[in-house]
Amino acid sequence: MRCYFNLIGAHQTILDDKGVDVTSLNEARVAVLETMAELIRDGEDITTHWRRWRLETTNGSGTVLFAISLDELVC
Questions:
Q1: How far apart are CA 12 and CA 38, in angstroms?
Q2: CA distances from 36 to 6, 51, 60, 62 (A)
Q3: Residues 7, 10, 49: CA angle, nearest 5 degrees
Q4: How far is the C-alpha of 58 from the C-alpha of 52, rounded, in Å?
Q5: Which of 41, 43, 32 is nearest to 70 (CA)?
Q6: Per-residue pLDDT for the chain (75 aa), expressed as one digit of tens each?
Q7: Whether the Cβ atoms of residue 25 and residue 65 lie closer than 8 Å to each other
């Protein structure tokens, strides 16, 4: 299945127009968490730049499959 990873903020939305093919929702969740961990390791300051944002994973029809608050990732 193809999943799209959209960043949703209070005043802005950044849509993923390419998506990624995954075999399961669990694989999509793991990919999100690994990518966010890599950004943090590389010095991305998600505590400042991404506060109160969430990442919504959708399918091709736009149905939200799951969402992750970026605030939760830096606790």
A1: 23
A2: 13, 13, 22, 22
A3: 65
A4: 19
A5: 32
A6: 999 999 999 899 999 999 999 999 999 999 888 877 777 776 666 656 677 889 999 999 999 999 998 877 665
A7: yes
25 vs 20: CA distance, rounded Å: 12
Tokens of 2: 């193809």
Task: Give the three-class secondary structure for 58.
Answer: strand
Residue type present at position 47: T
Size of the chain, expressed as the number of residues it contains = 75
pTM, 2 dp? 0.81
Whether residue 10 contacts residue 52, with contact meaning beta carbons closer than 8 Å, is answered with yes
